[in-house]
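User: Fold this; tokens only.

Assistant: Input:
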Amino acid sequence: MAVSQLTAERHPLAFRIMHEVMMASILLLIVTGLYIHRPFVGGGGFLMALARGVHYFFAAVLLIIIVTRLISMFFGKNRDWPSFIGNFEDLKLIPPVIAHYLHLREMPELKKKYNPLQMLSYTGVFILAIFQGISGLALQYPEALGWFTYGIFNNEVEVRLAHYITTWAFILFLMVHVYLGIREAQQEMKQVHLMQRVEVEEEVEMAEEVPVTEEPTEEQSHP
């Protein structure tokens, strides 16, 4: 099976589009969020209003994409919830997977789309994104979400601190995600992010099917 066909099965086009929109939204939310926290250009005014507008818009986009992805995870022909919810067999693979990332051994055989560390991290991203959405709304409307602002937390300062710390958790995740994507599967990463087909793999596969004919020896060519 060619790599492009395998990637299409593991990452359908709709999932790849959602992945790209999610990544772009997270990047824009990080940049604008850090600017809102401490303006590093201009000091406010129009740029602050623009940053807030972009921040709110892509926060809504991200939450819509996450809800859509969660629904498609459990329903439809491409549902893949077992690849996000691990079991005991998956947990047993954590030590060898860690050893692989430390260059101590080969990656163990996987029966699912993702390894257990990917399962934990991707599930964590969904949870943290939902938390960021709620905490962001709590910062904007503290009284309306009093159960969150003054129930789970004590005041707006704690909510803002948690929102800020979670932003850095996303930054750390993106750094590791990009590094491992480049290190582990460059061809697949190219297909997932650029939505391109890797023709080289298909050409190699086709070449394997072409029978090789032996050239006539000198004796055969001159009877």
